[in-house]
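Appendix B: complex inputs.
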Amino acid sequence: MNCLVCHEVIRISRLQELFSWKEPLLCISCQNQLIPRSSQVLYEQNPWLDEVIKKLNQGDICLNHIFFRSLSQSIKKHVNVIGEIVVVESSNSSSAPYPWLEILVTDIRQSQPDMRFKGEKTLFIGEKKLLEYEIFITIS
Amino acid sequence: MMDLSGREWLETEYLQLKQQGLIKEEQVVKVDGIKEGVCQRCFNESVHWFGTFKYQNKWIHYCRKCLDFSMITDQLLLYRSVILPEITPNAYELDLDFQLSELQERASEFAKELMRKKEAGMIWAVCGAGKTEMMFEAISEALKEKKRVCWAIPRSDVVVELVPRLRKAFPQAKVIGLHGRSEEKRLYGDIVISTVHQLIRFFSAFDFLIIDEVDAFPYTFDEMLPRLAKKACTEDCATVYLSATPSASDQRAIKKGLLKCCLIPARYHLQALDVPKFKWCGSFEREVARRKLPKVVRQWFETKLREGRRALVFVPTISSGHKFKKVLEKNLGLIIDFVYSSDERRLEKVRQFKEGQGQFLITTMILERGVTIVNIDVAIMGAEHEVYEESALVQISGRVGRSPKYPHGEIVFFHDGITGAMDRARHQIKGMNRSASKQHLLKVESP
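Resulting structure:
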């Protein structure tokens, strides 16, 4: 199993990981750079995260897996009645071959068809607002 | 002139050329971007280098290995030109204002032989042997036979340096330089000087391929690059590998007779290679972090200042380089430039230093090879650092004494303990001097 970002072989270091039903996505070194933040901003901004977003904008859509779980949980936490998720993309990501954020949100909706949204909330994958990784959830 | 032969295009590029009336459908072969689990652009077939996602109810499979060159998916087609190259008349005409030495002649004959027999082989020549010049006659012969030539190099700096030299030597030929920031990416060249990465734009284009510095990063570290080089060649392509420090595996292949080799142990000015001196200075990184300059280092720089000698100073990391620059400027009362990979002004700074501006230039490993600066000394700071492998130390040592007018210089490894790599590098340099001495090649016998 190779790390999704740096492609190094992932070494299992804890017994807990060995018996986990989920395959690890990142090696320890990359995992350490994915630092969770508050509820609205999912992750701490750092050069590693910038590089991941740059790759997503190039079309490396499978990196979406890194954010899938945390974004699902964050959406669930903030909204509870059906609504519409609007993906706001800035011009920075307009040259991307595929809209990775829209694909990520679609995957989350399909994985949890019963999920209902209410209210308005803007979520960010990183800290830099107005950058390309902004997700806006609102009632339609 | 736009290059239409031996090229591989994405659909958008192809359609643009077709719309401009530059290419017709019968002049290309279409292939699937990804076919039977193999990316047809970079020939990646490792499962973990592919990605999959669902978009608009369709599963899309894409190659992650060559993603930096725009996305290739199983939904896209690649278009390969079948147009043959038209070598410019008289492109082969050589305009040289020097004569090859006997040793260079030996290597030149070896390259011509490989070219005629359409084989692969290596020229293992010490730093400053004049490897570039050794290839000119073989290139000329290839162009005369209407063969298209590619000179592939791992680093863009060296591409920039080589283009004017080849243009001067082959005034009638179209010579283009391809690297990440090049503006000639779509132009035709009888001789294409390219970083290995840029060969991704070609398919079955070249009949004579020279791979310079074949042991250098990233060629030996990225398995995609040898595949790209192979893909850019025709089936009958002859290949010459050039190196001053072949990898251990190439050295083994040479010993076993699996790879033809021509060894050139002396420089073209036939003076012995300068042997590095080792000087203990304690931990370089710790000292500069404390904003201190070790005494032995300060004395060395002061001597250089007194003697009016210029020096190239290597540091192991960018962060230590920034700190060292400040400490050195403060101690010597000079403004000193520092160049590193992400420095936007690096080409300009190197050009200025080459032209004689500045007494010292601090650099990371980016100037380890392929750069010629006349009449300089070299210092390596923190020579025990892991970035300094044997080949890197030999290459850095090869930066001094490259000109016949100034055939010697001083090389000092400032260290905090002698490493195996340092010992082996010095041993290799002495070995080359011994070999040249045994063959009575040197004008003055090495000490």
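The radius of gyration of chain B is 24 Å.
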